[in-house]
Amino acid sequence: MPQLLADCLDEVIEYLNDDKYSLHSCLSVNRLWCKVTVGILWRDCNNYSTSDYRTLINCLPDESKKILKENGIIISTSHESHPIFNYAIFCKVLSISKVHEKIFHLLENQNNLLLEDLINYTQIIVQEICKMYMNHTSLKVLEYVQYSDVIYDIYPSPRNFLKNLTELKCISNISPELLINLTQTCHNLFLLDVIIICHVPKELVDLITIQKNLKCFSMMIHDGPKDEINSIPLLTMELPKTLTRFIVVGGNYNISLSFLVNFINLQELEISFDFSECIESFEKLQDAIFPQLQILIIKCSCPRLEFLVKFLKNNGKNLKKIHIDVNHCDSEESINSLNLTIAKYCPNIRKFSTGFSDKDLETLKILFNNCQYLESIKFWCGGKFLNEKEALETVLKYSKNIYEIILQYQFDLKFELLPSELESFFIDWKKRIPQKPLSFVIIDSEFCKNSLDKNVENMKIIETYTKLGVVKNLIIRKLWNY
């Protein structure tokens, strides 16, 4: 009965996951409520505050505290000599780089240390925290990405430390011993995210080979020797054909995508290359059919139009989200032709991101007419692309179900949106039936000096209509963080 009560309480409190204020209130109800709530607050190390890391250090075993003391490391921890819980046992999501970053800042703010000592002390503390984790918890998610020379020992002493791991993000040049250990104990990864540096080790290929449930795979090819490209097929050949999500960030490397043709279960495909020459292998996919594909994202460079058009004809019907960077398209005519293709062959899209030139308003109208389920649209503004006024007026007049508008500024605008024009848009939006509160996202760029958010009067108008409930939320982001 007590366990049943705890399980039910866990289900209830789980709904407060994003409400930290309410979660902290739950800590004070009784010990059972406190324990269940602590399990939620402490399961993801990415959410720990500086104070939480002080508490975590206070949870270190005496042997680790002795090591810290012998190295002259003094951390002012909480007033509790013995914390109420061993908080380490609740951790299910561990990011080694995040722990390193937080401990570094903790020491930086607390002590007047030389940089050499600061780096050394950080490494010692992080290593002891890793040892504590591997002795007291069974992780679900592990992120082990480091760009420094230091290698933290997380080889588990209890064999079940990584047995339940479902998500792993790592760098290809991590310790072979760790990869061997993972291969022996970790067979049920759902997601694997790899940053490839220098080469693909055999141990990483072996880890992929023994996975029974791998559905999501992502690889980022980091700058390094060109011969690393030759080792990538060793990895891709072992990927299970049951993958539902594939992401490749290739930088300026040109790798063949032909192996994807047989991945007929793909639901999400994301491709990112820095130069159009590096995405020519998309030709190999133009005839491929992915009957379950719902998300298509192509960043940085755009494939040749004829390849992309043919791909969309084959796979557009089931697509729900499309994002295509068109900055590198040959001409405005190419962009317009692409948008017309999407309007014709992708009638079920919910989210759409691309560019429309100021000459292509008719194409935008066709898109809204053909794609009746469209809920979110991102416009590129500035330069050869639409100004905000044209984009907003067209959404208002021709869209049916839009509730989110994203304005991404590329370059300076030809005509700045006037406050009176913005207010007129909100007044008319309020009259729409059914009336849906609008999510407004502004992605700012250093190349645009007259974007909407830089006009004080425009921002006051948005604030006014947020209070009136016309605008549900306003989000402003920088281009490089989006």
Automatic annotation (TrEMBL):
Q: Which InterPro entries match?
A: LRR_dom_sf
The protein's name: F-box domain-containing protein
Q: Which organism is it from?
A: Rhizophagus irregularis (strain DAOM 197198w) (Glomus intraradices)
Upper taxonomic lineage? Eukaryota, Fungi, Fungi incertae sedis, Mucoromycota, Glomeromycotina
